[in-house]
Amino acid sequence: MSNQRMHGLDMPVWRGAALRALDPWWNTPWPPLRQRTYHQARRHVQEHGLLDARGRFPGTSISLGEWLYLQCTRYPDLHPEQQRLLARLGIDAAAARAARPRRRNLRASEVVGASWPRPFLVRKPIRVPSALITGSRDSPVA
Questions:
Q1: In the chain, how many domains are there?
Q2: pLDDT in tens, 19-74
Q3: Residue 32 and residue 8 in contact, taking contact as beta carbons nearer than 8 Å
Q4: Domain-embedded: residue 108
Q5: pTM: predicted TM-score of the whole model, two decimal places
Q6: Alpha carbons 117 and 92: distance in angstroms, whole number
Q7: C-alpha distances in angstroms, 103 versus 3, 36, 41, 67, 120?
Q8: N or C: which terminal CB in the chain sees fewer CB atoms within 10 Å?
Q9: Domain check: are 83 and 53 in the same one?
Q10: Which pairs count as long-range contacts for 110-119, CB under 8 Å and 24+ apart, including other chains?
Q11: 8 inside domain
Q12: Which residues have CB under 8 Å from 103's CB, separation 6+?
């Protein structure tokens, strides 16, 4: 299909009609990457049910969830067909307004992440080659 999109301008009319019969949106006015990501979201909906925009798109990958949130933030500016396709995933205008970002607060993650390894460091010292520090034999560093 991507090859057909590239040559869409010099394609015979009958071929364009045949492709539109297969998929009316085979040659969308938006980039193919958006179409591929939409199909990834559609597969997720088929396997797990409609999306929960207010709940930060649980069960989606970080990248898919962030893409979905971006679609929600741009919802009023999307092409009407893009809005219709999102509605099939469970995202209408109200859900888009209520959407929350996929990623959580990174500052809170830093606090949890910074405190997690401390018990391991206290229990067992790390051996660092002292040659890296002073040029002598290995010594434990606490």
A1: 3
A2: 888 887 778 888 889 989 999 999 999 999 999 999 999 999 999 999 999 999 99
A3: no
A4: no
A5: 0.63
A6: 43
A7: 35, 22, 17, 11, 28
A8: C
A9: yes
A10: none
A11: yes
A12: 62, 65, 66
